[in-house]
Every structure is written in structure tokens, then in C-alpha cells.
Design a protein that fits this description.
This is L,D-transpeptidase ErfK/SrfK. The structure is a single chain. The relative contact order is 0.17. It contains 7 helices and 18 strands. It is of the alpha+beta class. Helix content is about 25%, strand content about 25%. The two termini are about 30 Å apart.
């Protein structure tokens, strides 16, 4: 690389990002194709849990579980257990602008304006019956040390379970929103931190998007108010890398009644004018057990 002013500025920008991010996955966008990152492999420390490994590599719970089907996620891991760390992604097939959240893969993509990088984080999403909405909105406010005001629905649910929620939680270590929150144009829905790390990358929230504390702190610093936010549900992604077709398959969310994973794969392949690849052994294996790992078809 020739270090002209433009390239030097880009290198300084990436270095600055690294000083701000302890775990965030920062990836240079490819000149051709739409696959970023690469698979890693890691060794578990003694008695480490899946959630702890997830925080160490900035990968979500379900991402790790599906990429490592032989691991018992309910137990602490044996020291030096070898794990696949699925840190390669096909970028969602939507405009690369602002924040894009793909619920099916429990992952957020942030495209800084006028920069050739994407920064990605795992997120927790709405649990069954408390779905995170789909569509386009924007960040309307940023709150450090936010207060939490449970909705009426949350308070009623707590009462049914014999619990009590106050009208307002003060900021502090017991606040479920953590130390940073990004308010969206959708009332009651936020992108926020947490006072617990368990469950990032799974269905844990009442519809909000939950992030590791380090990740939301970085995102909070970087994104301006007005940043567009697009929430999609794309369980199947088709991409290209070095001229070869690639596929990334995630399980359907439980709300997708009447839809099959096979029909989603067929729809995506047809959209790329490669319908015959449905018979690929790789695709057939992913249909039987979706790993979320990027595979060459």
C-alpha cells in the first residue's frame, strides 16, 4: 500500500478505532464480493462458559452454540476445549448505511459514513411474544447512565409472576439498561447495554436490542444522532468471495410460521439466478443443521 494522505488517514482511523474498541469486530469492506472476516479457532479456559467465551471473542451465544454442536452449552467447558469462532459474515443484502441489524443472526452491522469498514457486534433480541420490530428507524437520542422506565406491559407481567417493578429504575449497577442507551424512533425500543452478560446473542429482551457493555460504549461514542437503523430478518444470505458462491444459513425465528428454511434458500438462490445450487451437498447439510458458518457452495 502506498502511504499517500488518503491511505495514511485511513490507517490512523483504524488505529483510533482499535484504541476505542476492546472486542468489536472491525472489518475492511472487500473491493469485490460481500464476504468479510474469517473463521477463527479458540481454546476454552478452565470452567469458562459459552457466554464468557462470547464476550472474549465478541460473538453471540447462538452463534457459538450452532458453530460448535458437540459443545454442551449448559456446562462450563473443560480447559483447552477447541471451539470454532464464527467471525466470518456475508453482509446483509441491504444498503450499507448506518446500522443494520439482522435478527436471524443476532448481529448488528455498523457502517461508518465515508469509511471503507464495517463494525459488527452480537446482540440479544426480543424473546418470543416480545418481538423486536422490523423496518427502518433512526437514533433519536443518546443517554449515558440512563434511567429505565418499564412499560405497563412489563409491569403487568412482573405482577403475574409475583414480582414488582417500580415506575422508574435509577441509573447505576442494578439498571437493566447498563450505562449506555441509544433511543430509536420507535417508542419503548432501544439499543442498550446490560448489567448482565449472559444471553447476548439470544432471545432475552422485551423487544430491545441488548449489547455487551464494551460494545455499546463504543457504538455510543461513534454513532451520531440521526443515524439510520434498519432491522431485518434474513436467515439465509448468499454472497460471493473470489468469484465463488457462498451461503450462510441461520435457523428461522419461531414467529416465521408457514415458512420453511428450504423455501428461503430457494428464494435467495433464485434471486441470484443460481436455483440449481439447491441440490448442493453443502446447502443440504445446512438445511439439516444450520450452523451460521459461511460455506462455499
Amino acid at each position: 500500500m502506498i502511504l499517500n494522505k488518503k491511505n495514511l488517514f485511513f490507517l490512523m482511523f483504524v488505529q483510533l478505532l482499535c484504541t476505542w474498541i476492546s472486542h468489536a469486530t472491525t472489518l475492511v469492506l472487500p473491493a469485490a464480493g460481500n464476504v468479510v472476516g474469517e473463521i477463527q479457532y479458540g481454546l476454552a479456559e478452565a470452567n469458562e462458559t459459552i457466554d464468557e467465551i462470547g464476550r472474549r471473542f465478541d460473538v453471540g451465544y447462538y452463534e457459538l452454540v450452532r458453530a460448535n454442536p458437540r459443545i454442551d452449552a449448559r456446562q462450563s467447558l473443560i480447559a483447552n476445549s477447541r471451539l470454532v469462532i464464527p467471525t466470518q459474515y456475508i453482509l446483509p443484502n441491504v444498503p450499507r448505511k448506518g446500522i443494520v441489524i439482522n435478527l436471524a443472526e443476532y448481529r448488528l452491522y455498523y457502517f461508518p459514513e465515508n469509511e471503507n469498514v464495517v463494525i459488527s457486534f452480537p446482540v440479544g433480541i426480543g424473546r418470543k411474544g416480545w418481538s423486536t420490530p422490523l423496518g427502518v428507524t433512526k437514533i433519536v437520542a443518546k443517554e449515558a447512565n440512563p434511567k429505565w422506565r418499564p412499560t405497563e406491559r412489563l409491569r403487568l407481567e412482573a405482577e403475574k409472576n409475583g414480582d414488582f417493578l417500580p415506575d422508574e429504575f435509577p441509573s447505576g449497577p442494578y439498571n437493566p439498561l447498563g450505562q449506555h442507551a441509544l433511543r430509536l424512533g420507535w417508542p419503548t425500543f432501544l439499543i442498550h447495554g446490560t448489567n448482565r452478560i449472559n444471553g447476548i446473542g439470544s432471545r432475552v429482551s422485551a423487544g430491545c436490542l441488548r449489547m455487551f457493555p464494551d460494545d455499546i460504549e463504543y457504538l455510543f461514542r461513534m454513532v451520531p444522532i440521526g443515524t439510520p437503523v434498519r432491522v431485518i430478518n434474513e436467515p439465509v444470505k448468499i454472497g460471493k468471495q473470489d468469484g465463488a458462491w457462498m451461503v450462510q444459513v441461520h435457523p428461522l425465528l419461531s414467529e416465521q410460521l408457514g415458512v420453511s428454511l428450504k423455501s428461503e434458500v430457494e428464494r435467495q438462490l433464485k434471486g441470484h439466478d443460481i436455483p440449481n445450487l439447491i441440490h448442493s451437498k453443502v446447502i443440504q447439510n445446512e438445511l439439516k443443521y444450520p450452523t451460521g458458518i459461511v460455506r462455499k457452495i
